[in-house]
Amino acid sequence: MFMGEYNHTIDSKGRLIIPSKFREQLGEKFVLTRGMDGNLAIYPMDAWKVFEQKLATLPLLSQKARTFIRFLVSGAQECELDKQGRILVPPTLRTHAKLDKDVLLNGYLDHVEVWSKEVWEEKNDFSDMDSIAEGLQETGIIL
């Protein structure tokens, strides 16, 4: 499971350092793709294969399913770390996630999320966790 939060920067060539804790879990090759909230997602190969299998079960007669698959798969790319522990984020994915300089990487259970620091702060307001927790109480997750 991926967990934790790390602040890094992306350079002008689009190279991003992956925190060493995440590198250990990601392995030699992994997949980088678009995330659902204006971020990017990095999946270890085994988790990506499971995700691909789930995507393959979506009904192809559904326009929404086809669009969802295109969104995730067309942006996906296999990555390897360079000797400095960096990946090259392609321009299309940098644009999608508004990655310019300050970047936040966080663990999200089976994958890593990559955020523009600015977008992270806009979209992740943790100031009202009491009401969020109350809304999830019926799931049985909240003790």
What does this structure look like?
The chain has 143 residues and is of the alpha+beta class. 36% of the residues lie in helices and 27% in strands. It has six helices and eight strands; from the N terminus they run ββαββααββαββαα. The strands form two sheets. The protein has a six-stranded antiparallel β-sheet with strand order 1-7-8-4-3-5. The protein has a two-stranded antiparallel sheet with strand order 2-6. The two termini are 21 Å apart. The model has no long low-confidence stretch (mean pLDDT 95).
Which keywords apply here?
single chain; 143 residues; alpha+beta; 6-stranded antiparallel beta sheet; 36% helix
Task: Offer a concise description of the structure.
With 143 residues, this protein is an alpha+beta fold.
